[in-house]
Amino acid sequence: MSNKPKLSFDKSNNNWNLCNFLETCIVVGGATYKSDDVVNKPNDNTYTILRSNNIKNGFLNLDDLVFIKNDRKYKKEFIQKGDILVCSNNGSKKLIGKNCLIENEMPNTLFGGFMMVFRNSQPLIRYFIQTKIFKRLISNSIGQINSITKNSLKNINLYLPSLQEQKQIAHFLETIDNTILTLQDQLKQTEQLKKYYLDKLFPKNNKDIPELRFKEFNKRERWTLVPLSTIGEIKTGKTPSTKNELFWNGSIPFVTPTDIGDNIYSIHTERNVTIEGSQKSTLVPKNSILCTCIASIGKNCIVPINSCFNQQINSISVNNQYDYLFVYYALSQNVDKLISTASQGTILILPKSKFLNIEILVTKLNEQLKISNFLKQIDNLKSTINTQLNNLNQVKQYYLKNMFV
């Protein structure tokens, strides 16, 4: 095995040097605290705690923070600018090792006991631990124990180039990261914009007139409350026998709740059925709306082609008196109603018999089309940014694969 990567800034034949991981940084364990130490809101007498869920897609995320009373003494567990925050202990092995760089000062902020930081690290360590090489090495080192320790890190050896080349590679990858962060910020702003207009263009708080209306429509005209059964044909999904090979690996998408994400359309499914399989399932025409109705209630999507789906989903094939996109957006605004209508128990269930009687507010078709076209423009922008993000992440993964050994 070569100790020089496929891609390198150094055009000479200088080999990379083998070193032990603990020679490249200082490893610091996280702060322990008790549940009694946790408080609901921060104040002058609290510390902020960073945990595993504050690392999202390789970057720091501050949406879900925990705060504790500052009556305990901590020292090295305070986060520092330049630290690499790492998930060192988790019930899920695949989350072990996820990490992010702390780019700014964070006063009065600790990292939790299931975390560790790599401090004063060499320039390339923050990217080495994002590679599949590190993930394989750490997986082999920790075995069946879902925990990174200093002892497990002591078993990891890696190749690193000169300090100058480390800085060149790190700067190059940092440029990609900065672009990813910019796109993530644009995506977040687009999602906030969509939420704003959904709240304004649809009535809320038991009112039947929206706060915001396009100028060509009467601001005082009330919307009408109608049951879903009048909007279109409603069906419940069905799964063909998985033991019959004739039913599977065809060309007809078979949608399950895991295939329904943030996009309007369900484009990719894990499984497809054959024509024979579709006859043993529930087949709906393109532009039908799918809505999850077991456990995770209210996840929605539209099928762009004729599709089948499983029994955890109800469908609405919208008739020509309504706009299917408008109904999709209206359902997304009524998730709380869907959940409250579901049968309460260990698992939430919203059967077809209840689903078809759920009422939503609708307006005239021309206004439906105006609203849905406007919101779709925002969703199209969101989709474009998502595509750019996915492409750039693939580019980054290519370089992580080919710039390390």
Structure, described:
There is one protein chain. The protein is of the alpha+beta class. Helices cover 31% and strands 21% of the residues. It is built from ten helices and 22 strands. Strands 2-11-8-9 form a four-stranded antiparallel beta sheet, with no helix packed on it. The chain has a four-stranded mixed beta sheet with strand order 3-7-4-10, with no helix packed on it. Strand 18 and strand 19 (300-302) form a beta hairpin. Helix 4 (163-201) runs antiparallel to helix 10 (365-402) and helix 7 (324-332) packs across helix 10. 30% of the residues are buried.
Features:
405 residues, 22 strands, globular, alpha+beta, 4-stranded mixed β-sheet, 4-stranded antiparallel β-sheet, 21% strand
Distance between the termini: 9 Å
Oligomer: single chain
Strand content: 15-25%
> Biggest sheet, open or closed, and with what strands and sense?
4 strands, antiparallel
**How many beta-strand segments?**
22
Total of helices: 10
Rg from alpha-carbon coordinates: 26 Å
